[in-house]
Amino acid sequence: MTNSSSRGLHLDPSLDPTQSRSSSIFEDWGSSNLKVLAERLRHYRPSPSSWASSDDETHGGVTSQVGMPTSIANANDLKVPPKSKRAAVLLCLFQGAERELRVILTKRASSLSSHSGEVALPGGKRDEGEDDKATALREAHEEIGLEPSHVKIVTVLEPFLSKHLLTVTPVVGIIPEHHKFEPRPNAGEVDAIFDVPLEMFLKDERHRVEDRQWLNIQYRVHYFDYDAPDGKKYIIWGLTAAILIHAASIILQRPPDFPEFWPDFDALARNVRDGKGGGNMP
């Protein structure tokens, strides 16, 4: 288990605004902290992977549902889907009232046929001719009414492999002027829009896990409980939690206070190839 002391909810004070090359920090980003954070994240490059095709945006390694970046040499054995089965989500950050980083989440509509009532990042499957950034922005506009012009995209993280073997790419964006965002939930897709502090996904408070098996390989599902100011309670878990743990580790530059438990991808690939186990992750 890897432990690390918390930095607190505030943005890292080492983000020195004097290091910014822009003379219009506050006009462009709303705060010097967000500006310097954006400049740092723009230098982030996902780990190289042999599976990524030449025109993939990330050229990065696939991650599992538990958020472990890995270059999977046997990605073809895992039957990673073609581009027609790719999706992107928008990890949209803004600065809260106490200068903490917060991320926007949704609760999926109860009427949906899949993952109804679950907490998710805005996003969906890529349309033909789209890249991950365009997909994430389009879906966020459709689902929560977020205008693309209000978001500054700063980086793209490693793709994740969902339980349905769908590759999901997190796109990180910042809203400099969050007060201008007026949430408009799409009633057919979204029951609620809310935001949470990003750092909660590195803390062991209100965090629990469940160990499961798929294709005879053990993997770990993370759960986070969140009580919103309006009294509503949310559970953030599964792939969404995995993405947020991984993203928070990169953005806040420290590991989580709990073990993530990384599955044995070589064994998983062998089991897929040998036909052991079967079906989707429960």
UniProtKB/TrEMBL annotation:
Any one GO CC term of the record: cytoplasm
Compositionally biased tracts (Polar residues): 16-25, 61-74
Domain of life: Eukaryota
Pfam family, one: NUDIX
UniProt domain Nudix hydrolase: residue ranges: 84-218
Keywords tagged on the record: Hydrolase, Magnesium, Manganese, Metal-binding
Chain intervals for the UniProt region annotation (Disordered): 1-25, 46-78
PROSITE patterns associated with the record: NUDIX, NUDIX_BOX
Name under which the protein is recorded: Nudix hydrolase domain-containing protein
Organism: Physcomitrium patens (Spreading-leaved earth moss)
Gene (UniProt): LOC112282386
